[in-house]
Amino acid sequence: MTSAKHQIIVQNTLTRCKRIYTLHKFLFKTLVIKLIIPLFVISAIFLPNVLAQEYSRWDLPEGAKLRIGKGVVENMTYSPDGNRLIVESRIGIWSYDANTGIELGFIAEHPSEILGVSPDTSMYVSLEPDNTMTVRNLIDGSIKVTLIANTEDIHRIAFSSDGQKLAGATDENIHLWDLTTGEHNATLEGHTDWIRSIVFSPDNATLASVDSDRTLRLWDVATATHKATLTKYANTRYLIFSSDGSTLINTGYDSIQVWDVDTEQKIHDIRTPSLSSIDLSPDGNTLAAGGYKGIYLWDVATGTLKYELSDRYLRIRSVALSHDGSTLASAGENGLFLWNTETGERIMSIHGHIGGIRGLAISPDDNTLATGVWEKIHLWDTDTGKYNTMIYVGDWITVWDLDFSPDGKTLASDYLSRILIWDITRGTHITTLSSYGGQAVQPATTYSSIDHSPDGKYIAGVRSTNTGVHLWYKGRTYIASFTGHKEGVASVAFSPDSQKIASGSYDDTVCLWDVATKTNIATFIGHTNNVLSVVFSPDGRTVASGSEDNTIRIWDISTGESKIIQTDYTTGVINVTFSIDGRTLVSNERWDSSTMQLWDVETGELKTTLTGHASGIARVAFTSDGSTLVSASWDGTVLLWDFYSFLEPIQKPVQLAEDVNRDGVVDLQDLIATASQFGQTGTDTDADINGDGVVNITDLLLVAAALENGNAAPSKSIHSSDLLTTSKLQYWIKLAQQIEVTTPAFQNGISVLEQLLVDLTVKKTSLLPNYPNPFNPETWIPFELANPANVTVHIYASNGQLIRTLDLGHKPTGIYHSPSTAAYWDGNNELGEPVASGIYFYTLSTGKFTATRQMVIRK
């Protein structure tokens, strides 16, 4: 009625939804025949798409709502019929349709609990918490048999080809079990070092094993006795028998040895690039080997290379040949691929299995998630977990940190002692920020940290191999290196108002820097070991720091005093992150710890611990609305957690209607966001505060009133906005005064707008320093007008020759600071030709007012 492949899909779907396959076989068959098959015949064409959409939510840890990525691949096995590919990853066991790449099933297991999958892909061995070993059904995870004996130190297993026996290696011994009864049959003793690999011969009469002492031994399975030691110079990584059992292949990190089992002589010794996995074709003629530099196919009889698939993107961790030898599966840091072994053509890509994640960033609209894996950046859809694309950064480097620009159009990534800026839409490189200053140092561990200023003007970057804190104008020119730390700097963060920078260093201190004056304004001393992470609170009043002294300190930036959170960590606090409301601090430990801890900022008490990753956590972050906590791990996955589900109901923040940008605080950015949508109609906008279907003066007044009464009063940072000008404020105040409403909220709103108008009122016309300066190839010339005027800017060479005239036309009174309002010069003369490096002068003319300043072009 249906194909074998379709029956497998149905079987796995039932497993996941209802777990009913542990019932009696008769009941199972009845359900399939009477209920499922008729429905499946109708909807089979749609089922794979449904499964593909849901795999990111299979077997999630408690509190998680989405998984991005499928885990680093450790091993792969084809089913005998070639229709399924079983993938052992760091988070569990995946089953794929080998013809379509569609996910058929997933069993969540910690990597240390998965010991291996049987050759027929019907079962796997799991190490239980009580140190017993169980043989489980690969379809539904049900226990088939429990193995009797002390199995605490088992780290390697091998199935016999008939599925009747199992060998398991401890440090120096090998145990044999009967899989039909679970009885322990024998212990093979003789190795004197840690056993790295074991394998049964095809007839199951011989067991081969190799240890770290480079000793390769052959054992008689029936008598449990030692048969032979082939050499003291064997390789130590992988063992595999030919299909007829006549040869044994042994590999190390950079060589392959082929042995004649009968004569115990070495046939070939093949030198090859670094290896991580091997597999042998069924006919025994072709050996597939994967490593950091690609995939290699060798002729076993002659020891010659057939061909190689050398690709800088691969970094192969595992290879597996189908049983007919026509297809090769490879898994590496960039994904899982299927290849035609005759032509070398890549025939399929199965995305999701990437390497351990180092860097993490979320776009401002929360739609895109970027992960850094070795020298690559992967982009994902945060709603579905779907893989979008990959950006290749550079050879043999590690992407430690990523950061989106506030407008979400570009992404910054670290690259050795530079920062690369990427166009997210096109996935292309825009520019490179370099010129790191400060003293070079050699820390024990290399870290990088990047942060955009919230106003979008600057990028700050640090590296633990350098003592400087470095500042650039966004995407363009290097400004300065803030020096003061005595050791490398591991972390950097901007304040919410973009006016300060915090840095954490290997000199055990936290420094505060003033962006405008480029000076150190405070140094916080208290940690007793390297400071690995710093972050500002949402209100900008405190800085939290995490250190290798296993403490978190929350510093009051006005007094320099700190509150100490003493963690139970042992390897240092690698990340600290404030929740959007500032009431919770999330932290995690370095290296192998796979948990996150949530701390109460006010009391310093531990709220809860989140567990779900299979390896250490590299980065944590919040979405813009604060509802989702995102964690990236070395296990090759990102988990999105429902943050509010971990808090008591009274702790959940109340979302204020006036918080237009949903960042947890009502500030000038909300007024700017409302102004940007002024006049917009419809219900699909958060700027319609009163819900009357239009963004108008009423909404502006409500937001302004919330500024006056809330936790973020107006400030001079309003000058950076093009949407809040004196003319617009005057217009809005006039509209507000026409509204016949006298409620305190409206009156307070009018007062705030009037105060902003005072802040923006220019007392005198002035010409300000251009930025960036020095520059190449463009610059902006800011100015302020006390009165309306026709504005012209003249550019002169150092010899007084007029190079360019910028006629800006008639301008009203106001502040012209931002890139969209300031005078812009592209570095070209009147003929459109780029001018040479050197000193130039620019003059602002407004009729009665004239002023001149100097600037520098450096190419």
In short, what is this structure?
This protein is 11% helix and 42% strand. It has a four-stranded antiparallel sheet, with no helix packed on it. A four-stranded antiparallel sheet has the order 2-3-4-5. The longest helix has 19 residues, at 25-43.
Give structural attributes:
four-stranded antiparallel β-sheet; mainly beta; 65 strands; disordered N terminus; 859 residues
What about the largest sheet? 4 strands, antiparallel
Helix content: 10-25%
Secondary structure category: mainly beta
Mean pLDDT across the residues is: 85
Shape, per Cα inertia axes: elongated
The number of strands is 65
Instruction: Enumerate the spans where pLDDT stays under 50 for 5 or more consecutive residues.
Output: 1-53, 710-717
Tell me what portion of residues adopts beta-strand conformation. 35-45%
| N-end to C-end Cα span | 73 Å
Radius of gyration: 32 Å
Strand order of the largest sheet: 1-56-55-54
**What is the count of helical runs?**
7
Can you describe what's shown?
With 859 residues, the chain is mainly beta. The chain has seven helices and 65 strands. The chain has a four-stranded antiparallel sheet, with no helix packed on it. It is elongated, with a radius of gyration of 32 Å.
Which helices and strands appear, and what pairs or packs with what?
Layout: H1 4-18, H2 25-43, H3 47-54, E1 64-68, E2 73-78, E3 84-89, E4 92-97, E5 103-108, E6 114-117, E7 123-127, E8 133-137, E9 143-147, E10 156-159, E11 165-169, E12 174-178, E13 184-188, E14 195-200, E15 206-211, E16 216-220, E17 225-229, E18 238-241, E19 247-251, E20 255-260, E21 265-271, E22 275-280, E23 286-291, E24 294-299, E25 304-310, E26 316-321, E27 327-332, E28 335-340, E29 346-350, E30 359-362, E31 368-373, E32 376-381, E33 387-392, E34 402-404, E35 410-415, E36 418-423, E37 428-433, E38 448-452, E39 458-463, E40 469-473, E41 478-482, E42 489-494, E43 500-505, E44 509-514, E45 519-525, E46 531-536, E47 542-547, E48 551-556, E49 562-566, E50 573-578, E51 584-589, E52 595-600, E53 606-611, E54 617-622, E55 628-633, E56 638-642, H4 668-676, H5 697-709, H6 726-737, H7 744-760, E57 766-767, E58 779-781, E59 783-785, E60 789-797, E61 802-811, E62 814-816, E63 823-825, E64 838-845, E65 850-857
Helix pairs in contact: 4-5, 5-7, 6-7
